[in-house]
Amino acid sequence: MNALTIRPACVEDLPNLLALYQHLTPGDAVPSLEQASANLECLRLYPGSDILVGIVDNHLAVSCTLIVVPNLTRGGKPYALIENVVTHTDFRRRGFGQQILDAACEAAWTAGCYKTMLMTGSNKPQILDFYRMAGFEQSKTGFQKRQLPARQA
């Protein structure tokens, strides 16, 4: 198995990253490169926040977004949200998703977060098992109010 190299996304990654997101939500609207670059820069205004990418043989194989949220509870310790977890279909079932989640959690701990959270809209047992095997527990009830429709589970 080829090794996965995980690092923060750079502007040069954006075309491949936007293509990778189509493996998360096929047919989803794609921002312009200018908008994607501005959004990446804005995300990084929150210290510790970033988009992590995993590279295998010069191919962007996996990614997730880590958002570190400042907080006034828990002694002022921030918390982290993980979003947009996606693995290219050609690279699935090789442990790369687990590795990117581990890297995101490690970055959250380094940023002083007391917890990391993620949500999934999927009710597929294999997806829920994936998150459990990555060390996440299904312990809270999530609610959301949307302007765009949810992805199909």
Care to give the gist of this entry?
By secondary structure, this protein is of the alpha+beta class. It has four helices and five strands; from the N terminus they run βααβββαβα.
Structure explained in plain terms:
The protein has 153 residues and is α+β, with helices and mostly antiparallel strands. 27% of the residues lie in helices and 22% in strands. The protein has 4 helices and 5 strands, in the order βααβββαβα. Helix 3 links the parallel strand 4 and strand 5. The longest helix is centred in the C-terminal third of the chain and has 15 residues. The mean pLDDT is 93.
Question: Topology, please?
Answer:
Layout (H helix, E strand, L loop, with lengths): L4 E4 L5 H7 L12 H11 L6 E7 L2 E11 L9 E9 L8 H15 L5 E3 L6 H9 L20
Q: Average pLDDT value?
A: 93
Query: Helix and strand succession?
Result: EHHEEEHEH
**Rg over C-alpha atoms, rounded to the nearest angstrom:** 15 Å
The fraction of residues in strands falls at: 15-25%
Q: What's the overall geometry?
A: globular
Proportion in helices: 25-40%
Order of strands side by side in the largest beta sheet?
A: 1-2-3-4-5
Number of helices: 4
**How many strand segments?**
5
